Structures are given as C-alpha cells and as structure tokens.
Sequence to fold (782 residues):
Amino acid sequence: MFAHEDLFHAFLIKYAEIGIKGKNRYLFEDALIRQIRFALKAAEGEFAVRKVTGRIYVEARTPFDFDEVVECLTHVFGIAGICPMVQFDNNGFEDLKERLLDYVGKVHPEGNFTFKVQTKRADKRFPMDSNEINAALGEALLEAYPGLRVDVHEPDVFFYVEVRERINLYSRIIPGPGGMPVGTSGKAMLLLSGGIDSPVAGWMVAKRGVKIDAVYFHAPPYTSERAKEKVVDLAKLVSRYAGPMDLHVINFTDIQLYIYDQCPHEELTIIMRRYMMRIAEAIAEETGALGLITGESIGQVASQTLPSLACTNEVCRLPVFRPVIGFDKQDIVDIALKINTFETSIQPFEDCCTIFVAKHPVTKPNRKVIRRSEEKLAEKIDEMVKTALETREVIRVE
Amino acid sequence: MEAYLDNSATTRAFESVKDIVVKTMMEDFGNPSSLHKKGVEAERYVKAAAEAVAKTLKADPSEIIFTSGGTESNNMAIIGAARANRRAGKHIITSTIEHASVYNVFGWLEEEGWRVDYIPVDENGHLDQKALEAAIDEETTLVSVMYVNNEIGAVNPIGEIGALIKQKNPKTIFHVDAIQAYGKYRINPKKEHIDLLSVSGHKIHGPKGVGFLYVKNGTKIVPVVYGGGQQKGMRSGTHNVPGIAGMGVAAAQIYENYEEKRRAMYAVKKLFVDLVRELPGTTVNGLTGEDSAPHVVSVSFDGIRSEVLLHSLEERGIYVSSGSACSSNHPAVSGTLKGIGVKRELLDSTLRFSFSVFTTEEEIRYCAGVLAELLPMLRRYRRM
Fold:
C-alpha cells in the first residue's frame, strides 16, 4: 500500500462521532477498543490496543502484515481514520529531525507537495515548544527536499509529531468505515435468509453501533444442509464487521406444511412470513434484543409490497428496521460487493420462502382476510411455534 | 440405519487400501525419483501398482500412466491424442451422453478449431453405431466413448464399437472412459480395439486423487502436464505414491472373486428394481437386467423434486445422487437423461441409486421401505 510499510509498528485510531458523546464517551471508547481487539484476532501477530489521554493506539508486539492489519481495522465501525505511525525514543531534537527526514524520503517519495508540520508537545521536558519544533522541522524539510513548499492553510500533507514519553510521527490517514462501535446501541435480531439483502441490512444497522444476532429458518428436506452452511458463512462475513453473533436456526418445516394444509395457497408466503416475524420476535425478547432487522425493500417481490409489509409488520410489537427499504437492487448489490457477502449470497440454494410459492401469490393482502385464514391454524400452531423455539439450534458465529 | 447408495459418486476404501496408504505415508514415504534407498523403496510400490492394474487389463505395465484421477485421465487422453495427431486430421468424435470431463474437453477443442461430431444414443443409452460409422472419415483421429454411463448404467458394446472404428479408419484412436466400468467388467483393451482407457481409483474402493490412463504401446499421444519428466515424460509430477499404491491394491482386490461379486451386485440391483417398480409413480430409466451395469439404477418419481427426495432420504441415513444436479435457480439438466428421451417433467425428478460390493440386501429393503413411506407425503406438498 505504501512504500516502506516496515517502518510502521503502530497505528493511531481516529474516531469521529464518538468524540462528541459527552459523559458516555468512555463507554464508546471501551466498545471501540473491544471491537478493535476482536477484529485483530483475524490478523497474524500480537497487538496492544491502548487508550492514552483520549486517543486509541494499536501497537504491534510482534512482526505483522501491514495490509492485513489495515484490512482488519477498516472493518471496525466507529473508526474514522487509521494512521500508520512511526514510534521512536525521545533522544532530543537532532535525532527527531533525522528521523523525520528519513521518514519523508521513504514514505513521501513523490517529493513535490505542500506541507505543514503539526507538533503536539505533551512531554513538557522537551526543551523546545511546539511552535519552535514546527519551525525548525519545517526548515529542515525545505532544505533537504527542494520540491517541498510550506502551506499552513491547506497543505497537501500534514506531518504530525507527538512528543510524549516516546515520539510518534505520522502523516498518512487511511479512511475507516465510520459509524459507531458495535455494542453501544443495544441489540437487534436480524432475519437472515441467505439472499443478498439481509446481510446488507444487518451490516447497515451494525454500523450504527447495534449488536446483531440472527435467525435463519431452515426447512429440511426442502432446503438443504448446504443452504444452512451458506447462511452460517454469511453470518461469519457479517460478524467481521458486527462482531461475534448467535445464529438461531429454526426448523420451520412443520409450520410451513401445516400452513400449506390449512390456508389458501396464494396466502402461504404472507402467512409464513408473519410466523417468521413472530418467532424472530420471541427470540428477540428472550435474548434481550430490542428490534428486528429485515432486508426488505419495497416492491422487490410479492411479499414486499407495502400492503404485504404492513401485513407482516402488524404481528410485531418490537420495531422492525428495514434499512434497505428504499434501495434499488443494484444499490444493495453494490454494498454486498463492498462488504464481500455477494459471492456467498448468490450461491444457488433454495431458501424456505420459495419452495411452495404459489404461481400468483397475493400482493395486496387484506389483513382481515389473512387474520381469518390464520384462525384455521388455531388448533396446533401455538404448540408448533413453541416446539420450533425450543428445538432451535444456536450457532455461535465469530 | 445407514445406507450409502451413492457408489457411483465415490466408494468407501477397502481396509487393505487404507493400510498401504498409511504405510506409504508414514514409513515408505520416499520420492520414487530420489536416487537413494528411500526412493527405490517407494518406486517398488509404483511398479507393483502398475503390474497389478496392467494384469487386470491383460496389458503391459509400461502401458499404464498414473494420473490424478478420472478427469485428468480423460483430459490427457483426448487432448493428448488430438494434439499429437493434428497433422493427420482435426476431426474427433464423441457421444451426446459423456461425462463432463469428456464432454467439456470436446467443447474446448471445438473452440480451438477441431471439427467435432456428437453421436446420439438410443432410449437405452446405447451409442448409435450407424451414425458413428457414417461420421468417421479419413480425418478422424479420435473417437471417445464411455463404457458404462454414470447416470443410468447403460453399457456400450465397446468391442463392437472398437471393431467398427478400426474397420472404417484403422488410424483412428479409440478412447474409452471406463471410470464406471472398471471393476464391474473384465476389460481387454487389445481384444476390444481400445487404444486409450481411463480409470479412477476412488470408484473401486481406492483413494481419491488418483487414477490411470492405459495407453496402448505405439499410440501417438502427447502429454498435457509438463515438468520433471516423470513417467517417461508422459505425466510429470512427483508420483502420488500412497494413491497409486492404494489403487493398485484396490484393483487387485476388486477383480478377486470377480464373478461372485458381480452376481451379488446384480442380485442387489434386481431386488431394488423389483421393489421400486411396485411403488406407484416411478419409472426406472434404461435397461435393468444383466444387459446393464450391475451397480447403477436411475429412477424418476412423478411429481417429486429430486433434491427434496434426496434430502428426505438423507434424513433417514440414505445417501443418493440426483439424476441431474438441479436447483430451481440454476437448471442444469442432465445431458444423459435428455439424451435417452426422459420426459421433460421428469428430468428434475430423477435420482440415481448406485451400489457396490458393500451394499447389502438389508440396505436395499430399508431404502425401498423408506421410499414407500416418503413418496405419498412428498407428493402431497408441492410447488403450486
């Protein structure tokens, strides 16, 4: 990515919104540190993640792969920027100057740009103050690299120098994903289907700091073991951003067949989806989740027309978040590609929504009619839902 | 109870195979190309395996080239023969119901400028010999025909076809994909006019990742894998000694008490076919008697999606293959089933049951009983 990546042994983590959260700031910072630690488990090497006077540093304790670590950090919501940093002992100004000149030669070999040196002297024992250091380093740079010019208003490059017990030096900022650290905004239950939309929906809500668990409706023998594997794989990909999650796998076959037996075929999908929402909500309440998340987008399929959405929505008391509701398919695909779930999502396994789908499913369900159809399920359905909940498999995904 | 009825996909290894694989990994693990004792030791296993498989074909060990399996054997045979003989002509022939590792190679050669004829088959999956005879001309350098079809178990009269080819053009090379036939038939390449013959290890209770190509002495063929010049330069790469040794042992064992094994498999097959035919709404595809392979039965089930039935059987410990790997999203309908004229609506309702020397009458009865129980239930719930 850069020249001389081996110079860097630490990263300064810049965070955006959490900087303004007042008294709760430490909660956000702690969540961010936790998420960074989790994300770095995927990278080879050992790292210390430390909070020092309102800043978060990631310091490598062992050799590491620069690109791999940056890749991991760009998955952590709440990070606004990742600054690869050179750290060295404080051996006085001459040493600092030599190191800066060496750094600029290696990391900014382009050699023709405007700059500003921005020093922060936290260690007041250093004999020069910040302004003096800025001026002296600027002068040294101009002398050593004739292509450089000073611009104190809008420089191309800032050279940040932090004089602490050691000296930190950085100039590059790699953009982070933004958002808020997961775990700072409660928990929600994602209905994960195996398609393209639901992982994107989960990712979007997680980006706002919400912890995610997921529920998948499995319908053996109509859906295969591989379809379930695919959903586990998708949950893993989402967890790279959202952190560890529980995937609740509901065996939905008996409920589906019962609806098939008792209700009009063209209402099968909508009634089935109402039961999915009910079951997801039951798990949410049991596990302390405060909302449901779906990948629904208006009009994409028969069960996602506004009347259908209203009809499935009415069975829930918890809020249902549909972050991709106004997105076109291509918009969703673009995010799926970005977060690397697309390739997995398009593997061709049947999901339980399509196995018995009618040729002409209702697109404008009348809620009264649907409620009346559901009355035909009265005899067994509560018991079946209870069984489905009790026999669910919980897979820890991380 | 468990019933593994997917032996055309792969088989469980013989105990003796496991033993020699472990031994050649842990003790005699040398590289046959090494000059020292460890190398010589390892080379002995390769020689023994070549002798063992050559013996089953009444061939010479020098005619055996070890490969990574059936697919590589087919690729090597077809690409190797087509390229080696491109000056003699660029016309090659195969059938419409070949395995993908033949069919797709022909497709590629067609793109590369070869003229390809695909010969149709009759409703039993047998090659149309008249059409073959008419297709062969003086530019035909290669004919590739499968011995036993992997989906329906149809058996081609390979000796007749071989004689026909050589009579029409003696220079035409005859390649036989015998991956489903080896171990179930006695194959004599010289008598059956076969120049190239592909075999896979794991279909005969040997290891995966190993196979061989029989190349009749004097057959003009060039390698497809280049490198350190192992196997007389025909197939470079360090010998897969555990695989090769394991396959050698499997080959010898599968042809031990051969008649008895075949009889047992035919008995199992007959029982299965009889029981399945009693079930309403089933069609057994192709021939089913001793004029078909002893280990493959293709059955279509009216009104049932093969994948759903497959997973229902799986829930009860019965493992089979779908006749055509099909899902609603990606219809990839089987060329064989279409080729033999299976009705359109049954293409996605077909399963393949395949047996081995390990298959028992008890497993067959269990499977038939489960089918009898499942079919009415599955027919009740279907896509509308």
Remarks:
- Chain B touches chain A through 16 residues (CB under 8 Å).
